Amino acid sequence: MRVVSSRLTPERTDELYAAVLRLLTEVGYDRLTMDRVAEESRSSKATLYRQWGGKESLVVAAFDAHAPELHPVADTGSLRGDFLELYRTFEEEVDPDIALAGAVIHACKTHPSLAESLHERVVVARVAVLDEVLERAVARGEIDADAPAIPFLVPALVGPAMIRELIERKPADMAYLTAFLDAVILPALGITTPA
């Protein structure tokens, strides 16, 4: 959900959010100031405070707007098919920004309030999409509700898409994500033969 005032068009808000994320990446959360955001985005500091109240709310709103919007995944009839649909959405909407991810992770480690706000506004809704996919797989009898791998699925699913380019200098394209799904994720859930 984006915070937009009558004075800021959606396009202007997107520009402002882009400036916030660029500064967050360049200088880090601690050195990011509302003055610097106002200067970088050609906005008044008063407008920023009126709209977002402070730095934390502005950063959370900017990150939320930047994060992929994961909609409910169509029921394909199999967990593998549902995961592939999820990956297709992820692949289409995400251009992994390792520097931004690093800045956000560091900020969350040193600012628990920011971590909680990001979790509530950005993470929870997106994890709910994965939970729905898993609940369908349990209902179909494909996996056990208490499969030991379930608590590790979110980082296991997101990680390859985010860091393959950093580690291997190659994009996490659909062929790679499919191979990862078949070799790692499905076997970890007790599914040994792709549907």
TrEMBL record:
This protein's record includes keyword Manganese: no
Residue ranges constituting the HTH tetR-type domain according to the UniProt record: 10-70
Pfam families: TetR_C_11, TetR_N
Alphabetical UniProt keywords: DNA-binding, Transcription, Transcription regulation
Gene3D superfamilies found in the cross-reference section: Homeodomain-like, Tetracycline Repressor, domain 2
One of the record's GO molecular function terms: transcription cis-regulatory region binding
Tree of life domain: Bacteria
Leader sequence segment: none
DNA-binding region boundaries: 33-52
InterPro entries: Homeodomain-like_sf (IPR009057), HTH-type_TetR-like_transc_reg (IPR050109), HTH_TetR (IPR001647), Tet_transcr_reg_TetR-rel_C_sf (IPR036271), TetR_C (IPR011075)
PANTHER family membership: HTH-TYPE TRANSCRIPTIONAL REGULATOR RUTR, TETR-FAMILY TRANSCRIPTIONAL REGULATOR
Protein name as it appears in the record: TetR/AcrR family transcriptional regulator
Record organism: Mumia zhuanghuii
